[in-house]
Structure formats: C-alpha cells, structure tokens
Write a structure and sequence with these properties.
- By secondary structure, the protein is an alpha+beta fold.
- It has one domain.
- 33% of the residues lie in helices and 14% in strands.
- It has a five-stranded mixed sheet with strand order 2-8-7-3-6, sandwiched between helices. It has a three-stranded antiparallel sheet with strand order 1-4-5, covered by helices on one side.
- β7 and β8 form a beta hairpin.
- α3 packs parallel to α9 and α4 packs across α7.
- The termini are far apart.
C-alpha cells in the first residue's frame, strides 16, 4: 500500500534535470549597503550664509518700500481741475459787489495782512520775465484755515493776472472744519506781468497709513526763510507773504462760514453782496489786493484805485499813491 503524504498532497515528482535546479541559497545574512558619508559643514560657513540671506531680504524690503513710498512729486493723489465756470466767476466779480462789501463783514471778523516794517522787497528773478514782487503762499491741503484763505487769495491774484489751471480740493475729513471746499495751488498755473505767485503746498490731504499726511512740495531756501521769519512753525498753515512787505499767518476769517458748501455754491454766492460768504471772502480779498498794490507801485490803476480797495487802504492805514 502506498504511503500517504503527511499533508495529503500529491506524491513527489522525480528528480529534475540538473540544468533546471536552483543553486542552493546561502545561509549567511545578506550584505548591508554602505551608509552615505555625511560631511559636516563648518559653523562659520552656516553663519555666513545666514548673514548673506538676511542682507538679501532686507534689500528686497527696502526696494519694495521705496517703490511704494510717495515723494515731493507724489502721483498717488489725483486732482480734479476746477471748472472754467468757477475760475471765471472768481475772476470777474462785479465791481458793485467788491465795492459794496468793501471791508465790511459783520458776521465774520476779518484779519488783514500786517506790514512787516522796512524789510527789503522780495522779487523774483525769473529769466525773461523781469523782476516782479513775489506773492508767496505756504499751505497744506489738509489744513482748514489754508482752505478758507485760498478763496480771497485767488480772487485778489485774479485782479493782477490769470489762472489757467487750478485744482479742486477739500480739507481733511479728520480735522476741525472738515471737508472745507477749496482749491490747491499744487500744479496750478498763473501768469501776471505784475506779480509772481510762488505757492508751496507742503502736504496733501491724504493720510494713507495714519502716520501723517503725504508730502507734496518742499520749500526753497528763500521760501523757508520766509516761513522761519513770519510763521510760528513750519507746520502752521497758511502763511501769506506779500513780497516781504506784508504777512498774514492763518486765515483772515473763520472757515465756519464755508461749512457744507461746495466750490460751485461758494462761487455762486459771490454774486450777492449781502451773503456772509461774500462779505468774508471779498473783505479779505480787498485787503490782500491793497497790500499787493503797495508792492506793484499801485498798478494796475484800475484795480488799486477801486473803491473797495481804497476802503481797505483806509482800514490798513496804507498811503495811497497819487
């Protein structure tokens, strides 16, 4: 009887040809692969690499910061040109209005420019234009008192020349007398044979980071000298310097009278002598005009001899020529 397999499997086959036999397996443990050699980097090279990386990162941050910063010719602020209708209204105020107001403003006390004594005349040295007395306005777009004072300054200067470009502006919304409607002299264009307008809008009305208003224009050395002599601080706005002979620090009237009005509404109001807006702006404009006439030799005569300007002469105790 045949012997059964212990596991019930098929009987073993006969021996296979030697050519098909597998070689015997080695009983030894397989050989381990060699471990990679680790080269230790000296610490001084690691430190040097970190320093170089830090320098690169700092340089990149500086480039990014400089690319985003604004300077004295910042293009982050957009200025809307004043409509020609507004400029025309300020340049052609009827004589009946200017003479009717004179220097009277019952609701708004007017502060006139003050004579500076025997100071030398500040004249421009523009080539090809001849020497002309300088009217210097030092302001800031965010400042409400500068916003108010630009109105009589623009009207007075329009009597001696012409604005062909003037931007609309509002004072900052985060200061007293917020959003006072006004203009900006930044990039303004003015021509005159009698006077030279020099305006420095030191700061804009923008405060993008909450750390301060964006710088616009830096004063020249001569303008800085005027600020140092007449202004209480380089950050007090505005200063009006009329050829170093008359000066006014601050606004000649309170910005309250302009509260809630747009540029067009204020310009339209100037047609009515009884309006508090007209009385405040025109009384100041007449006094600024009288001060300018003292440095132009009372020219042009049609301007300097007008009844409203003569009323300002009397108030300011200016001796009229002729």
């Amino acid at each position: 009887m045949a012997r059964l397999l212990a596991h019930g499997g098929a009987p073993p086959e006969g021996p296979k040809p030697s050519s098909t036999l597998m070689p015997p397996m080695s009983l030894d443990a397989p050989e381990q692969a060699e471990s990679p050699v680790v080269h230790t980097i000296p610490r001084r090279y690691v430190a040097l690499g970190l320093i170089v990386l830090a320098i690169i990162l700092v340089g990149a941050l500086i480039v990014i910061r400089n690319a985003n910063q604004t300077d004295d010719t910042s293009d982050t602020e957009t200025v809307t040109p004043a409509p020609t209708s507004v400029i025309a209204a300020l340049s052609h105020i009827p004589a009946a209005t200017t003479n009717g107001v004179g220097v009277t403003s019952p609701d708004n006390p007017i502060t006139p420019p003050t004579a500076t004594g025997n100071a030398s005349l500040w004249e421009s040295s523009t080539q090809g234009a001849g020497a002309r007395p300088v009217v210097f306005f030092y302001g800031a777009e965010f400042a409400p008192y500068a916003a108010a004072e630009r109105w009589p300054v623009v009207i007075a200067l329009a009597r001696f020349g012409a604005f062909t470009q003037l931007g609309l502006m509002q004072s900052s919304s985060s200061v007293a007398f917020s959003n006072t409607a006004t203009f900006t002299f930044w990039h303004a264009k003015y021509s005159s044979v009698w006077v030279d307008l020099q305006a420095d809008e030191r700061y804009s009305s923008l405060d993008p980071t909450g750390g301060g208003y964006t710088a616009l224009q830096a004063p020249t050395a001569r303008q800085s000298a005027s600020v140092a002599v007449y202004d209480t601080s380089a950050k007090t706005f505005p200063l009006l310097d009329i050829a170093n002979h008359y000066a006014l620090v601050g606004s000649s009237f309170s910005p309250t009278v302009l509260d809630g009005l747009s540029q067009s509404q204020i310009a339209d109001d100037l047609a009515y002598p009884a309006s508090p807006v007209t009385q405040a702006i025109m009384a100041s404009a007449n006094e600024i005009t009288a001060a300018i006439c003292t440095v132009t030799g009372e020219r042009p005569a049609a301007v300097c001899s007008a009844r409203g300007v003569r009323a300002a002469d009397a108030k300011m105790k200016i001796r009229q020529a002729g």
